[in-house]
């Protein structure tokens, strides 16, 4: 498995669609900015077959200091982003091989 950076993703989309990387970069950045804005407002983002991004509250809990397990530490309540994969995404992940490697549109 590899780590795919935003730059690698932009270059791959550019190659597949025949678009200039700068055009793709602007669209990808706008997409990420919109997602961040919607999630920070508490909105739920649903991409059919791909999955759902939503903000959840993590309750306050008591943890342990790894350096001194006898000392409890309070982990405060916080908001976090949760991703739930869609049926098609789950299926592709379970198969281990992605249909997307063929260059065909997988989600649509």
Automatic annotation (TrEMBL):
<keyword id="KW-0238">DNA-binding</keyword>
<protein>
    <submittedName>
        <fullName>Putative DNA-binding protein HU</fullName>
    </submittedName>
</protein>
<dbReference type="InterPro" id="IPR000119">
    <property type="entry name" value="Hist_DNA-bd"/>
</dbReference>
<dbReference type="GO" id="GO:0005829">
    <property type="term" value="C:cytosol"/>
</dbReference>
<dbReference type="GO" id="GO:0003677">
    <property type="term" value="F:DNA binding"/>
</dbReference>
<dbReference type="GO" id="GO:0030527">
    <property type="term" value="F:structural constituent of chromatin"/>
</dbReference>
<dbReference type="InterPro" id="IPR010992">
    <property type="entry name" value="IHF-like_DNA-bd_dom_sf"/>
</dbReference>
<comment type="similarity">
    <text>Belongs to the bacterial histone-like protein family.</text>
</comment>
<dbReference type="Pfam" id="PF00216">
    <property type="entry name" value="Bac_DNA_binding"/>
</dbReference>
């Amino acid at each position: 498995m590899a780590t795919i950076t935003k730059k690698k993703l932009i270059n791959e989309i550019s190659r597949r669609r025949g678009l200039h990387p700068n055009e793709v970069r602007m669209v990808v950045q706008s997409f990420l900015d919109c997602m961040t804005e919607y999630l920070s407002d508490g909105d739920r983002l649903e991409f059919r077959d791909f999955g759902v991004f939503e903000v959840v509250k993590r309750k306050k809990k008591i943890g342990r200091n790894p350096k001194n397990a006898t000392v409890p530490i309070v982990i405060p309540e916080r908001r976090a982003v949760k991703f739930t994969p869609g049926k098609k995404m789950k299926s592709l992940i379970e198969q281990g091989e992605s249909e997307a490697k063929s260059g065909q549109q997988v989600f649509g």
